[in-house]
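Suppose a colleague, Dr. K., hands you the sequence of a protein chain of 473 amino acids and asks what its three-dimensional shape might be. Before reaching for any lab equipment, you can write down a predicted structure in token form. Begin with the sequence itself:
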Amino acid sequence: MHVIHLSVECFPLAKVGGLADVVGALPRYQRKLGVDAWVVCPYYDKRFTADHQFLVVYEGIFYQGSEQLTYRVLKESSDTLGFPLYLIHIPGKLDRSEVYCYPDEAEQWIAFQHAFLHWAKSWDKKPDIVNCHDHHVGLLPFLMKYADDYRMFASVKTVFTVHNGQYQGWMSWNKGILLPAFDTWKWGLLDWDGLINPLAAAIKCCDAFTTVSAGYLQELHMEANGLEGLFRSESAKGYGIINGIDTLYWNPELDQLISEKYVAANVAEGKLVNKISFCKKMGLPTDLPLLAFIGRFALEKGADLLPQIITQVLSNPENKISIFILGSGDAGIQAGLEALLLEYPKRFSVFFGYNEALAHEVYAAADLLLMPSRIEPCGLNQLYAMKYGTMPIVRGVGGLRDTVVDVDYDSDGYGFVFANADSADACTAIERALKKMQDTRTLNEIRQKEMSLDFSWDKSARQYVKLYDQLLD
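The predicted structure, expressed as tokens, is then:
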């Protein structure tokens, strides 16, 4: 079975969020199951491309509207990621240093999808499955069926994976002239509320779509930034498959980025060594429980609640705890956190930005990880945390509800879940966690239990392959 994954993110080539982690791991695990899985991404002027050797495997020319675009397809020569990685390079379009935030993103992603189809037309054999990830490549299922030059792909099965349904790639119809010529009788498949909507087009035209958790699949029926009715009407071809984690990279037994490796059997000792090392570096006390937050400063992550949560927790003299934040984003949220550095200099620290190595240190050192998300299609941070014996404190939404079981309400639990996206509920959950930590024996039992859970990609990759098989049958 030949499967092509198309995405604008892939770790470690280019990472902004969890999309990159999924695309950088899932194909490798699928190859372990005998699937010939490839990844195709845009070219980026980043360290990865500078540090690796690439071979030019194809060159071509196509028109985007009246503009002639020349492109090259580059293959990473040694398959260092565990799967074939192909990059599409288009001067002036797909050759930039960042993934997002350019004013001509619509033109970029149209060019990426068109170049892929133009290249694929030269192949001797068509792929069995094309798995498209998020709206940036959401036009492909439509173009493969209805674009004049690419109808030979109409029989190829397409799977569309929704990583976040809030972002849909809307563009005005004046961009329609940039698409490859298509059957204009089918224009309605591209349209939603008078705009070209790549996410909506993908859901309409794909053979199956997946979400990154079962819970998020159901939530999209109720809240999907205007597409709720579409997700309900197309629900027969929807599948919720929880994301996995790459246990070769996120594993305290193997992790080269932490101070002390450890396993479940010696989790208490291992985490203590890591906490002492980390807290000394960050100017935090080494003898208090450590609560951490890692993520974007965005409303959907509940990051606007952080200043109030931190104030409520640290101003209560009964709460013996320190807090560390790793993230970036909204300037107002960042300003609020900076003010708290002056108010609680000995028990609160923050690193603005994202640092992959530092994130590993945080998971190994922290006792608790806070995720007060309003929207969380899957969430990977809670899975990383549990692998490192760090108890998650999460709002019960999306994939967080699917993966975290509250220890106070279930004898098999291993985390803490709260209902509402507000500081009061979050602080109550934090206080419950601090109380649970007072019993050392119970704490270690919870840590060992969560470290033994299987959230690896092995299980999730098998579910994807099962879906592919169903489509091909």
